[in-house]
Design goal:
Two copies of one chain form a homodimer. Chain A is of the alpha/beta class and about 375 residues long. The first copy, chain A, folds into two domains: about 170 residues, Rossmann fold, CATH 3.40.50.1970; about 200 residues, Dehydroquinate synthase-like, alpha domain. Chain A has 15 helices and nine strands. A six-stranded parallel sheet of chain A has the order 2-9-6-5-3-4, sandwiched between helices. In chain A, strands 7-8 form a two-stranded antiparallel ribbon. In chain A, strand 7 and strand 8 form a beta hairpin. In chain A, helix 7 runs antiparallel to helix 8 and helix 14 crosses helix 15. Chain A is globular. At the A-B interface, strand 1, strand 2, helix 8 and helix 9 of A face strand 1, strand 2, helix 8 and helix 9 of B. Strand 2 of chain A pairs antiparallel with strand 1 of chain B. Chains A, B: Keywords: Oxidoreductase. Chains A, B: This is Alcohol dehydrogenase YqhD (Iron-dependent ADH family).
């Protein structure tokens, strides 16, 4: 196990009706709020009107930034910063999934940064401070509600990049599983894959002896497997929505990664797909993951796949190691198929044309992963396998 | 899953050599420190001299409260409060296991309480504020390093009671697994049982649908089973010590309990044993746990024991439910025996004399547990079974 510094200060108000705490929580930090949201689903499912009612009845002033895209754009960040500066806003309230929260985080940090906000995406070390953030989560997926990271897309340069700073961690997040009852099937599936992928990025690691972290990781994976399909079939199943929602936060709040060395693989590959083709992040992850697993599984890494197969998929440990590993990957693929995740890039409109460009872009800062490092040729091979 | 408010603000500095952060961390909160420790083992293993060297070389003034007992006494708390008041101490630094940390917490809260400190043990609602605490952990057991609770013993009244307040959560804790290399076999065993017992108290619950919490709980149990015996046999096995240490914090920082209804059973029973006979807490828990399991396992609760047997002990799920449950309890008992935990109260000097008195005392605030509520007759039956 590696040394680590653990800090997860975000408070979570979890469960049906927890929105009631919103006014008192906001008032701890500010009085003038920027409400950040996406395409308007929160207006259809009643969350927006509930939030507005609470803000108004508690004399909390607010301004709105709407239309944040699923892969949130730096253009939205710029608009948000401008709104904050013009109106002396002192608190940011994203209502939505990872997109709204990520966008809010970079607005919060960009507010204190004098230059062009894309700079702090390219170079997170330029971030010094951020406005306080409280999130109302409506999609179980990215884990952004409980961590310091954000991913922002620049469509001008075809770049989708991660940034982050401890000051960007939400002060609190409200997780009401009923707010995810209206999430459509395909988004529920993509969110489930996203959660699993966050776990995989840390689980498949070259760090030895991080036993407790690996068992915790398997807990989250099992939760996704137990409830992913169920939440699609029964969108108002509270138990399924609640378990997925809490799993999404735990998958990426640091808990599973602390004590392990990690450099991600599938996420940076997928970010290129999203940056060039604007596809749903979780779908891209779902397509790439099994091919990535097949590609990186070798004599050095096989034990991790055996561990995964036995502990997560319940494969008989007496079987041959290679057989267990292959079965584990096959089961992963079958599970994603059961969620109606496409298994080929061509199904989401991605052909051969830009694979090389994207493979180079994915590795522009060096090889991906530590478990089995991937250079641009490796990434290209995985992309081609996934075509 | 029940609603919950999650707040785990304690920062953790985990790993060998993390003591180096001590001066800068203390200076965030205070300048005059009360160093709290037990019987002097930290003087033998070098931790004390390292701490003193760091404090001195950073011009941090400190006073000492030593001799805190394994079941920390209210008398130590009173002494600590007096030292703080006389010297305008503004930071408390326990170096040790749960005893030193628990004692420090009640000193920290008692400092702001004008009356007799035992009042705030009897009635935690009287706690308004606490001095900041930072802990250096030298024993993997109680989880006190990352939570708000404390257990204090009053030998005059034969009472061992829990108290707590969010203000008592340590600001930070330093977890260096090498500091537990010198923990003797019997304490390593008792600590491992204590960790498992904390998990059991929340795991065996009547709350339905807390799937993710149950899987996380099993992670911690598996970690104890994997490393408990190994840490006894190879006291300087870093991997074993590190996994147990981190498991101890995660077992009781809230993570496993949030979203579940719980009212503890075995801990309050054991507290009476410790209060009357001053036995090692983890040993008392180890003796009682299997008898408690046998006593509470019935038609209503059997599924939880089946889940436990299959997921933690790898018992074949195709077996008969009753057989799985019984096997799970048997395996628990065998594991404790492998740790050299006695399996009978008489082995630790507890006879029949006070069983009835202790059973009544354990239930003086009402029945124990929600999973299978226990009145004083039930507790007496379990005590008798454990004789």
């Amino acid at each position: 196990m590696k040394n680590f510094n653990y800090s997860i200060p975000t408070e979570i108000f979890f469960g049906e009706g927890q929105i009631k705490v919103l006014p008192e929580q906001i008032k701890k930090y500010g009085t003038k709020v920027l409400l950040v949201y996406g395409g308007g689903s929160i207006k259809k499912n009643g969350v927006y009107s509930k939030v507005v009612e609470l803000l108004n009845s508690n004399d909390i002033k607010f301004w709105e930034l709407s239309g944040v895209d699923p892969n949130p754009r730096i253009t939205s960040v710029r608009k948000g910063i401008q709104l904050c500066r013009e109106n002396n806003i002192d608190f940011i309230l994203p209502v939505g999934g990872g997109s709204s929260i990520d966008c809010s985080k970079v607005i919060a940090a960009g507010y204190y940064y004098e230059g062009e906000p894309w700079d702090i995406v390219l170079d997170p070390s330029k971030i010094r401070n951020a406005l306080p953030i409280g999130a109302i989560l409506t999609l179980a997926a990215t884990g952004s509600e409980m961590n310091a990271g954000a991913v922002i897309t620049n469509m001008d340069t075809n770049e989708k990049l991660g940034t982050g700073n401890p000051s960007m961690k939400p002060k609190f997040s409200i997780l009401d599983p009923t707010y995810t009852f209206t999430v459509p099937k395909n988004q529920t599936a993509a969110g489930t894959v996203d959660i699993m992928s966050h776990v995989f990025e840390n689980y498949f690691s070259s760090t030895k002896g991080a036993y407790v972290q690996n068992r915790l990781s398997e807990s989250i994976l099992k939760t996704c497997i137990q409830y992913g399909k169920l939440a699609m079939e029964e969108p108002e199943n509270y138990e399924a929505r609640a378990n997925l929602m809490w799993a999404s936060s735990l998958a990426l709040n640091g808990l599973l990664g602390y004590g392990k060395e990690s450099r991600w693989s599938v996420h940076p590959m997928e970010h290129e797909l999203s940056a060039y083709y604007d596809i749903t992040h979780g779908v891209g992850l779902g397509i790439l993951t099994p091919y990535w697993m097949e590609y990186v599984m070798n004599e050095t890494t096989i034990d991790s796949f055996v561990e995964y197969g036995v502990n997560v998929w319940g494969i008989n440990p007496d079987k041959d190691k290679l057989q267990i590993a292959k079965e584990a990957i096959e089961k992963t693929k079958e599970f994603f198929i059961s969620l109606d995740i496409p298994m080929h890039l061509e199904e989401v409109g991605i052909g051969e044309e830009k694979l090389e460009t994207m493979a180079k872009a994915a590795t522009r800062h060096g090889s991906l992963g530590l478990f089995r490092p991937l250079d641009s040729q490796d990434v290209l091979n995985i992309f081609k396998a996934a075509l």
